[in-house]
Each structure stands twice: as C-alpha cells, then as structure tokens.
Amino acid sequence: MSLISLPFFIFMCCFLCAYYFAGEKHQWKVLLIGNAVFYICSNPVYIIFIIISIVSTWYLMRNPVKRNFLLVIAINLGLLIVFKYSVNLGVRDLIAPLGISFYTFMTLGYAHDCYDKKIEPCKNLWHYALFISYFPQLTQGPIGTYQEMHDQLISYHRYNRQNIKEGGYRIIIGVFKKLVIAGRVGFYIDTVYSSPKGYSGLTLITATVFYLIEMYADFSGYMDIVCGVSKMLGINLKENFRRPYLSKSIPEYWRRWHISLNEWFLNHLYMPSVTAGWNRKLSRMLGKIFTKAKKGTLRLIFPTMLVWIVTGIWHGARSSYLGWGIYFAFIMLVSFCTQSYVKQLNAKINWNPDNIFIKVFQVLRTLLILSFGEIIYRSECFSDTVAIFKGIFTNTRINGSEIAAAMTPFGNGNQAAASIIIISVLVLGQIIIEISKERNEKAFTGHRYVYAFAMLTVIALFGVAGKSSFMYQAF
C-alpha cells in the first residue's frame, strides 16, 4: 500500500477514527491491529516472516545471554540474506517482505541493547510486536530504538487538533517533494543513466546533479509523510534529515543524512568494532608498519572499512553498491587521517571558517565528492560507471548545441523548455527554504495555511502521476 494513494488515504481516515474512539486500555491494541492490516495489504504471505522475527527475538532475548544473542543474529540475518540476495543464491522471483531491512535493524538493535544491559527485555510480546511493526516507520525508517518508542506506543493519546494540523501540513510537504520535485527529475535521470554511453558530458553532469536532487526530495519527502502520519497519532518519530546538502565535509554530511541509520551503525557496529580484540591486534600490526601514525587513528581504520562495506552490501548485491561503500570508506579514512594536518594548515594561513566564501567553497567541495560516489551508486554496472566518468572528463563542452542536447531527455522544443523552467523554479525555492531553515529553524513555520494551499496547487498542476513508489522501498 503506497503512502501516496487513495487506499492509504481511506485506511488512514478509518484508522484515525478507530484509534481515537478506542478507550485508554485498548488504543495500543487498535494500533497493533492497524499495523497488521497495513502489512497484510502489501502482501499477506510475508507477514509470516515478520512474525518469525518478532517472536524469536522476543523469546530469546528474555534471557539475553551470548548464545541467545547469536541465535537472534543468525535468524534475522538469515531471513534478510535469503530474501535480499535470493538471485545470487540461485533463487529467482522471490520478492523481499515489506521493510525487512529496516525491521531487521530494529530487532538487532533491540537484541544488542538487551545483551549489553542498556535496556530491560520487554516482558510483553504484544508490546514488542507493536514496536517492531509500527507502520509509519516500517517501510523505510526512521529506525527507532526501543527506548525512544516503547512508552510512546503503549501510552494513551487523546485527540489533539493541533497534532492533526501539524501532521497534515508535514504530509503535504512530503507529497510535494516526492511528486513534484523528485517526480519531475526522475524521468530525466532514468533516461540518461539507462544508456549513459550515448550522452555528452554536460548531459551526464546534469543527470548526476538531478540525481542528488531526486534522492533528497524522494527520501526526505517520505520521512516528512511518515513523521506527519505519526504526528497525527500523537507519536513523535526522530528526524532523519537535517539539511545534508549544506554540509561542509563528508563526515558532516553523513551525520545529517539518514541520521537513524548512521546512529545504528555507530552504536551497533562501529563502536563495538573499535573496542574489539581483533581490531586492537590489527591496529598494533599496522602500528609496526606506520610507526609515526597515531594509535587512535589506526584503531579507526578497520571499523570504518567494515561499516562502509557492510553498508554497501546492505543496499544490494550489485557491484556498484560495494564500490560505493569502498569509495566512501576511502573518503572517510582520508578525512580522519588528515584532520590534524588540515587544522595545522588552517592555523598557518589564518583560515576563517565563518567566512561566507569559505563556507560556500566547503559546501560545493562536499557536493562534488558526494557526486562522484553517487555516480558509482546509481550506475547499473561497472562499465556504465567508467563510461559516465569518461564522458564527464573527456566530452564536456558548453555551447549552444551541447545545451540543446542536454535538454533532449525532457522532450523537444517547448516541452523541454517548460520542464527546465519548472524544475529550476522549484529547486531554487527548495534551496531558499533549506538555507533559511539552516539559519533559523522556525523559518517558514508561520502562515502554514497559505503554504499548504500553494503546495497543493503546485502538486495538482505539476505533480507527476504514477510516481507513488519510493526509492528506498526496494531495500
């Protein structure tokens, strides 16, 4: 069931009525039933596997010893591997259950926190099932933690008109980003990246810039929708994006992009790897080779590589995903290893980080580095990646004919010109909003009825029909 569809709208209207008419003792039960209905509507068969994950994890972690923790990992990762990499395992036409990547993260995070004694195991199976299956965050996150979500989910929430208004406004923002911005640039990207060898460097650069726009509008738009839906229920989800394209470095970018996923990797893979015995041994071996290197820096090398390789593989079995992970592992390691030298250099040249021109330079540099990585990620195969880089670096010219050629994926004549104008205005408007909110979080929070009406009008005029599925639903 797509979040941008008539069936979901009908589901939410019926569900909200049932949710708020339920008594204090039964409201959380209505929410649990709503989660099950939402999941069954995607594919009734696959509810079996989320039930296996929920029941096995809850039962085993009632006694959070090492053996049970390892069994939880084996069961949940086993299911994920079978469905996510079925083609590579020789099984074809096996569709992954809805949200399996994200609820696997939640189950493993819960199990790890129980094992580390950070939380007490949940005593009520139905409460735990409510946490894992909460439908707004089930498909693409944000990846909630048991500590953040449990009390909110089982607590009674009275009908609050303000929550309904704020949630509805947030939903409109998300639909606007998805159908208007992401939808408009998506056709261009799909056309160019499906056969990149036939396009000029300028067209490839344009498609890459558009892909950055599409990724942010699509994914953050989804988060706006689910946070809005959850707000209507009186439940607050964590923010998953914080204007990532205004970051001044790649490490800062990853602290602002898909925040809950990065926090999960930090808490459950990166930090445990930093303090693990195998990492200490490998770090000591490197220390004998690189005698002048700092011990603290050496201890970050293998955990960083591990996290990014796992992140790449998690996205899928394509070589481009693994290449993307290796690329960002390299970038992050370079950033860590050169940090102290950069600080010394900045002190010598009196580098002023508050200078507006320096900030702009840093943001553009970050976007350039990011673009190279996303070319690897978006390419269908390694040969396409090579063709795109070759086209950009050897076949980029800016003249009338090249600009006209770059417009052809939009169509011909007036159609292409109209598409360029619409996208330019929309993207410029979004940039102004992002910069304003970076300076003042409360910017554009007044006159919401006016903004909502304007966005609904633009959605009706320029929204792209048939683009209701989200990019990360495949994961």
What does this protein structure show overall?
It is a single chain. The protein is mainly alpha-helical and 475 residues long. It folds into 2 domains: 6-157, no CATH class; 192-198 and 237-447, no CATH class. Helices cover 72% and strands 0% of the residues. The chain contains 20 helices and no strands. α3 packs across α6 (125-133) and α15 (319-348) packs antiparallel against α16. The longest helix is centred in the middle third of the chain and has 34 residues, at 161-194. The protein starts with 5 loop residues before the first helix and ends in a 13-residue tail after the last helix.
Main sheet properties: none
Distance between the termini: 16 Å
What is the H-and-E element order? Answer: HHHHHHHHHHHHHHHHHHHH
**Uncertain regions: pLDDT < 50 for 5+ in a row?**
none
Radius of gyration: 24 Å
Please state the structural category.
mainly alpha
Strand proportion, as a percent range, falls in under 5%
Measured as a percent range, the helix fraction is over 70%
* Counted beta strands: 0
Based on Cα principal axes, name the global outline: globular
| Average residue-wise pLDDT | 88
- Helical segment count: 20
Integer tally of domains? 2
